[in-house]
Amino acid sequence: MFAKAVILTDGKAGHENQSKALARALGFDFTLVPVKFKSPAHKALSYVFDALGIHSRALFEFPSGETAQVKGAPAITPADLVIGTGSGTFYPAKTLARGAHGAKCAVVLYPRGYDLSTFDCIFAPSFDKPARKSNVVEISANFVSQDMSFYEKGVRDFRERYSGDVSNIHAVIVGGPNKCSTMEEGWMKSELDRIFAQKGGAAMCVTTSRRTPPAIERLVDSYPWDYKLIYSRDHFNPIPAFVSLAKKLYVTAESTGMLSEACTCGNAEVVALDNLKPGRHKFRRFLESLAAEGYVGGARKIDLSQALEKAKALLGISRCVTST
Q1: What is the pLDDT of residues 164-205, one digit of tens each?
Q2: In this structure, is residue 321 part of a structural domain?
Q3: What is the DSSP track for 32-77?
Q4: pTM for the whole thing?
């Protein structure tokens, strides 16, 4: 059985967390190694090199503090698996796996533009419309942690801050605008008014995020929550507890990571707060796909067991651990 993985991280928490979740789900210990292309031109060249079958470390580097470790190769050479999530890691993961004495390479998200056939396993969300290849494992949302101890700890930490009744919680997760979404005060007020009108006897909980605009935080802060986390004042993360405890969970639609987690874990009915701009962008495709499959607008949960079994076969793993 494989024992050790190297996770190449581009420093983006959402990407890194998906890589960690995959490593844990497959039963691997792992080492995190930051990586980046030397420049945008080097990244562009990686697509050309990959098409030509050239896999060179000369295109990327390891940030200060990690370089010496990686140059000596103790973190890379003994690894059985190299994992990367996001376009900044796809080419380096493939390159390092090829130089690590038979290590396998698994990536999360769709490595569009690269030669798909030379990745051992690709976890691709369906909203990216991945090609149907034998090494592509299509999943309904982003890959999320299968580690139950993570959620149990999240609940314990939350209960140290909130002593109220947890038998009937309605929770709201507020993200922020991006290129495909907006976050306007009028829209947010309308959504919050509707949520409170439908609360019945539920305890109302909310968290904002690092992306939430100050005006939206002030608006959220003005409502009579039973529990609230305003991120600009407090960086505690109540989301694992919300996912575990809530009967109804409202998530702004641009938060693909949070929607993925809500639709995979816990038992809540998931409601997406649609702040998306018009157009057939990937956020809209993602939301429509989740709704069509009953994960949004209902309490059906994404089952990753078959995806993990397929990954296990592709990677030659004899045993797959889905929880710890």
Answers
A1: 999 999 999 999 999 999 999 999 999 999 999 999 999 999
A2: no
A3: EEE-EESSHHHHHHHHHHHHTT---GGGEE--TTTHHHHHT-TTTT
A4: 0.84
